[in-house]
Fold WD-40 repeat-containing protein.
Amino acid sequence: MPTIAPLDLDSHCIAIAWLNDSPHFALADGVVHRLDNGHKWAEVHDGLLAACPDADHARLITGGEDGRVTALSADGTVKTLAEIGRKWVTSIAAGPQGAVGFAVGRSAYVLFADGKQREFQHPRSVEGIAFAPKGMRLAVARYNGATLHFPATDGKPTELEWAGAHTGITFSPDGKFLVTTMQENALHGWKLADGKHMRMAGYPGKVKCFSWSAKGKWLATSGAPGAIVWPFQAKDGPMGKAPLELGTRGDAMVTQVCCHPTEEIAAIGYADGMILAARFADQKEILLRRSGKGAITAMAWDNEGRRLAFGSETGESGVVDIAG
């Protein structure tokens, strides 16, 4: 059984990132805790809504209910990157060349490394944002589809339509596909070269978490009693192909998935606090953590894929050392 270093915190864990080989736990109360030669913390926001590491894992980018976007360095230094008044920053994305994207109401913003900022307005609220893996391109999840912007130019945005509310968004690591989570129990996708649609349905619950495998061949998702893992090896992605189902349990829904940084393995977190690791090739499972007091809400592997940091809705957090 892998060993666990527990960390009991007192608020819902929103996101986790490894900075300078130390796990950082971003909580809904606006405090970011880190394990770095002891337990340390920094008060970053008056209520935190979104967080993600930047492209080189040097900083944790955060957005809060206080209308601020900040960057937290591994040494605990907090720098304010943007202030939008008393509005909620609901989505954060880290882009290439030090760029940061964030969403406020009906607007998506891109903040460049040189301090320049661009705003892209939409008819309805911006629900999710993501940067393409190559080039400066920002995708926005919105009602009835997605919009692609080119922040470094004044080019016309590309509109990708599909009826319904799109709530989250991600590019495939090779940049060929764009996938959204939806308010209904489904994913939708587009093959960007020709605009072909990809419908991924059949979930018993809403998909709130997704994670690409190390080489981008698989997309693992929550929203079912097991992790639903779609194949993206073919030129048309998962169309006409059945997904893998990993770690299926009858008594608890999957709430978090996190693919290993080098192996085709996913960590799977459940509504009862249990965590399994499952291998794609043969569906072999390893128990990483027994059930706890609340649903797993965040997970992140370290760079080597030897340790998994996790957090829950009740604040129960910690680090699992796979090597034991």
Summary: The radius of gyration is 19 Å. The mean pLDDT is 96.
